[in-house]
Amino acid sequence: MITEEKYKKLYNKERQIIDTRLASLLKNRKPESLYEPSAYLLGNPGKRIRPFLTLLSAKAAGSSFGKVYNAALAIEMLHTFTLAHDDIMDNADKRRGHLTLHKKYDLSTAILAGDSLLSIAYEYLLKDLGKDAKPVIATFTRSLIEVCEGQSLDKEFEVMKTVSLPLYTEMITKKTAIMLETCCTVGAQIAGASPAVVKALSGFGKNIGIAFQIQDDLLDIAGDEKSFGKNIGGDLVEGKKTYLFIKALEKADAKSKPYFTCMIKNKGIAPAEIPFYKNLYQELGVLEDAQKAISAYTNKALKNLTVIQDEDNRDLLIRLANHLIKRTN
Amino acid sequence: MITEEKYKKLYNKERQIIDTRLASLLKNRKPESLYEPSAYLLGNPGKRIRPFLTLLSAKAAGSSFGKVYNAALAIEMLHTFTLAHDDIMDNADKRRGHLTLHKKYDLSTAILAGDSLLSIAYEYLLKDLGKDAKPVIATFTRSLIEVCEGQSLDKEFEVMKTVSLPLYTEMITKKTAIMLETCCTVGAQIAGASPAVVKALSGFGKNIGIAFQIQDDLLDIAGDEKSFGKNIGGDLVEGKKTYLFIKALEKADAKSKPYFTCMIKNKGIAPAEIPFYKNLYQELGVLEDAQKAISAYTNKALKNLTVIQDEDNRDLLIRLANHLIKRTN
Q: Quick check: is B283 in a domain?
């Protein structure tokens, strides 16, 4: 059995290794005008959940961490590439307390550093591949394709009046969940897992990814400002079509509906209105709906783990899932 | 022997097939907000030199066109991805007479359509690969890495006072020549060529690529405005560190040097000054220098072709090289 303490010890150890390797892998590359901004971006402290999940997935499929370490770093770079370009599209000033790339440098640098990180991601992925390269590259590439599609859908949502729950689910599956799914699939594929194990681990990653995004939507309104690291109610201010918003619009009665229609029309609300809208959400019970959806997707994710024979390896993935879902930030 | 007529017939035929396939390959993909702009970009009529070179290289290495067609399209998509992002960085309004993506749509769409084209490029490349995937993906990825480095160097040049000829050559090798090199390498690799043949064809592609870029620099001042499709002297107006400029600065005497220093200081010249600077270039003989360099790199490229046994296949590559170099647009 893997205790919480044991899990945390392993996570902290690997996170440090991941950080160290990410911090050094662009060193000595030229030109500096390209790799210095990329290194800044990669150095932005993250939870490194994706590479850690890749390691655990490979381990669950019978491999050592060492066999997939470069692939794990590659997925973190793929993720970081999406952040750089998303931040430009969202015109974001900061990410995790640090200036975004296009604010610290300029637009050209941010576009190019993103592109370059993606190129280095493929380079690192290849390091862990041999004759098995094709299916793994296909998984990684599918992830890149879907992330672009998901981001495009998300941009579409900004100008759409209403968004259906299935379309929302498609968007977060492509924009967020695909990346966690890819961690699991790539880890399992490089480990040489059977198709059944690859499929199960992919299913785990995908569903935990969907739960993770709905949790993100929930934290925007129910989270603790300090540990969340973003302003509470930011999604409301921006008029984002989140899980909560979609459910609220679905459940709204004659009394509350005009407030949501107004929010759509004005593409958001004033910060002063956040408590009022939070109250509306509470009255409509959409915070509980979100919580239920998170539980449902988490359970769906965990069911996949029955194929993993080794109890410890299964425990590690369960603990990671619980950390992802119970996180407050 | 391949006559000019026969070459042109083959080129026109394949160009049409390439155009047709590029025009259809994003159809029916969703979301439209992503793939419609990407399709617009891919449909922008180009000479399709890169995919054609990929086909010819594979043929020279003993393969049929059919075996590398998807890879050929992949390289055109990789090239088109770079154009989309370069146009943003250069704040270009038009390309080949068509509005650039960020002008026709918006910044976010242009970034994302570029990213997406790159993702589809990898998808198409994989279609032509089997157990041999790794080295081909490595070639393609190296190309992506170097294109980013080359573009970054090119941006650096904008704020540098002087650029040495070796640094200029490094920049164009990475930004331009690598892509033609990749066409040849990928074509030869998928064809299953021996390392010696792969190396020779790569060398052909690289050197013809360098010649191609110097030719581009030369056409900016010596070309025919109508067929060149750009304004003559545009590089001078923008103060670009071209082959001609670097050579001119190198050869300038006390009388002419201040004009170039002034151009550096002002980051370009006024359009009315173009004839004056063209005259300076002529006096310093840098148009001839460029022509000589083009010939030297072309000869270096062609020497590589001695490894190609089949005369017709060799002729096709020679004809393509001559077309690239003798082009007026």
A: no
The answer to the question of residue B94 being in a domain is yes
What is the nearest CA distance from A155 to chain B, expressed in angstroms? 9
Tallying the residues shown for chain A, one arrives at 329
Kindly calculate the radius of gyration of chain B based on its CA atoms and give it in whole angstroms: 20
Residue with tokens 């971006």, as numbered in its chain: A41
Assigned domain for B192 exists = yes
Q: Which residue in the block uniquely carries the two structure tokens 């090798």? A: B173
Q: Which residue of B has its CA nearest to A106?
A: B89
Q: Report the domain count for chain B.
A: 1
pTM: 0.96
Q: How far apart are CA A41 and CA B137, in angstroms?
A: 25
- Cβ separation B126–A134 shorter than 8 A: yes
Structure token pair of residue B269: 């010249």
Query: What is the domain range of residue B201?
Result: 4-219+311-326
Q: Domain of B96: which CATH number?
A: 1.10.600.10
Residue B320's contacts (CB-CB under 8 Å, 6 or more residues apart) are: B7, B11, B49, B52, B53, B56
* Residue from the list B85, B120, B156 with its beta carbon closest to the beta carbon of A31: B156
Answer whether A148 sits within 8 Å of B115, measured CB to CB. yes
Chain A touched by B262 (CB under 8 Å): no
- ipTM for the complex shown: 0.96
The H-or-E segment that residue A23 falls in is helix A4-24
Question: What does the buried/exposed string (b/e) look like for A27-40 if buried means 16 or more CB atoms within 10 Å of the residue's CB?
Answer: eebebebbbbbbbb
Proportion of chain A in helix, strand, coil states, percent, rounded to 5: 80, 0, 20
Q: How does pLDDT run across A285-311, given as a tens digit for each residue?
A: 999 999 999 999 999 999 999 999 999
Q: Does residue B62 register a pLDDT over 80?
A: yes
User: Which residues 1-30 of chain A have a CB within 8 Å of chain B?
Assistant: 30
